[in-house]
Amino acid sequence: MHPVIPLFPLLVGLLVAAIVDLRSRRIPNSLTVTLALAGIAQSVLWEYALVSWWQSLLGIAIALAVNLPLYALRVRGGGDVKLFAAVGAWIGPVSVVAIFVIATVVASVVAILQALATGQLRAVARNVARLSVGLV
Q1: Sequence-ordered list of residues with C-beta below 8 angstroms from that of 44, at least 6 positions apart, any chain
Q2: Is the alpha carbon torsion for 59, 80, 76, 118 positive or negative?
Q3: What are the tens digits of pLDDT across the range 5-61?
Q4: pTM exceeds 0.85
Q5: How far apart are CA 71 and CA 108, in angstroms?
Q6: Other CB atoms closer than 10 Å to residue 90's CB: what's the count?
Q7: Which of 7, 55, 82, 98 sits most deeply, having the most CB atoms within 10 A of its CB?
Q8: Which of 33, 22, 91 is nearest to 13 (CA)?
Q9: Which residue in 98, 108, 94 sits closest to 52, CA to CA?
Q10: Exposed, middle or buried, 91 (CB in 10 Å: 0-12/13-18/19+)?
Q11: Helix H segments across the chain?
């Protein structure tokens, strides 16, 4: 079996979330809860599941743990945090950490390129410095 097949419902859900988010700047709770419950259900019921039920639950917990501080700092929105937790239900704790790191690096590069394109790089660097000092 191709490794993407077990993740097909997740990929469809993420595509729907992206379209809805682009249109309304919101990700509905009904979508994130459905994706999370489906991730747990497939880990319990499907023999080709990528993770066990406890890895699914741990994936949710780890996804929340790494994203809630970013939510508190207003770096990430609440819908994004919940959607990431739903992804954790499908892929488990190890993969969710790897995807978090990759997504953070990609988002950082996009932010830097956007700041360069709009002439705001100096202001962004100053704000990052202030935030870093404040966190320390």
Answers
A1: 53, 56
A2: positive
A3: 788 999 999 999 999 999 999 999 999 999 999 999 999 998 878 899 999 999 999
A4: no
A5: 16
A6: 28
A7: 82
A8: 33
A9: 94
A10: buried
A11: 8-24, 29-45, 53-72, 78-118, 121-135
Q: Is 124 exposed, middle or buried (0-12, 13-18, 19+ CB in 10 A)?
A: middle
The whole-angstrom separation of Cα 30 and Cα 129 is 38
Tokens 């995807």 label which residue?
Answer: 99
Residue found under tokens 């309304």 = 24
Q: Distance of CA 33 to CAs 6, 86, 111, Å?
A: 18, 7, 29
Q: Are 36 and 64 in contact (CB under 8 A)?
A: no
Question: Which two structure tokens, joined as six digits, stand for 75?
Answer: 């770096």
99-104: Cβ within 8 A, 24+ apart: 100/63, 100/66, 100/67
Q: By CB neighbour count within 10 A (0-12 exposed, 13-18 middle, 19+ buried), where does 42 fall?
A: buried
